[in-house]
Amino acid sequence: MKRIAVLTSGGDAPGMNAAIRAVVRTGTQKGMEVFGVSLGYSGLIDGKFIPMGPRDVGGIIQKGGTILGSARCEEFKTEAGRMKALRALNGNGIEGLVVIGGNGSQTGSYALSEMGFPVVGVASTIDNDLVGSDITIGVDTALNIALEAIDRLKVTGSSHQRAFLLEVMGRKCGYLALMAAIAGGAETVILPEVDVDPHEIVEILANAYERGKSHAIVVVAEGAKYNATKLAEFFEEHNEEIGFALRVTILGHVQRGGSPSAQDRILGSRLGAGAVDCLAKGEYGVLVGWVSNALKATPLKDVVGKTKPIDMELFELARILD
Ligand code: F6P
Description:
The chain is an alpha/beta fold and about 325 residues long. It contains 11 helices and 11 strands. A hairpin with a 2-residue loop joins strand 10 (about 285-290) and strand 11. Bound molecules: 6-O-phosphono-beta-D-fructofuranose (F6P). 6-O-phosphono-beta-D-fructofuranose binds next to loops.
């Protein structure tokens, strides 16, 4: 394989640049010509290929986001859109494609690979909901941002005897919320995967107040049935019972920005290099992920349309340690 391309798709994740850098440098070292595709699948449809050499990816490993740009592309979900992308790849003599992204992006890779094009996915999303990788690019940084928010909220919360409902990203997956709650010592956590009666949360907060805590943190996953806004509405009628005054903080996209952590830079580098190795060996239609402390290529057909479950033992631990 002599000409390959790389794109980033879906929500950006800190560490994507490390993966791009690794694809470009590993590919070049193997004697390949490497092209970056700007703006994900929409750039692919429009044939936006940029030749990239080792120097073009200098000074990017410490940067968040993606130097290639990303997009959520509706056109690529249609057969006509995918045909255009295939024509652009073939027309530019590209023989293999690396797709760095999460669930939706890898559904796209699978579709392209089913059309006969050699594609390798790289597991990248802050949500950590992708089957085929224990941990995905961006998770560690996003988690540490949530943790820093908790630490800061505890400081201001203690000064005012307040409880904070902190909503974190993660789509329908509670991984980030659960891990942030454990690492931040939150009073409780609300996940999409576990049904909760909001009266129970009132009790937990009231109990914390009675025990003399100076603050309380409830970490809420954005995809939970009761997100932070709904929970705050419910709590309006229970203010006296709770004791603490309540405030809501929604972290949102703040979690996706910022410089990638060491772990995300290393993971991005390993997975990016691993993807090029797969293309070079002729191993296509796979997702390169990190499983049991090693690189692993999992067939895309076993990845798409699935969601990784959360670890219920960790959920129990979060409850015990509150
Ligand atoms: O998938 C990553 C993610 O940040 C989710 O956690 C979040 O629900 C979603 O993307 C937000 O999407 P957008 O950036 O399109 O608003």
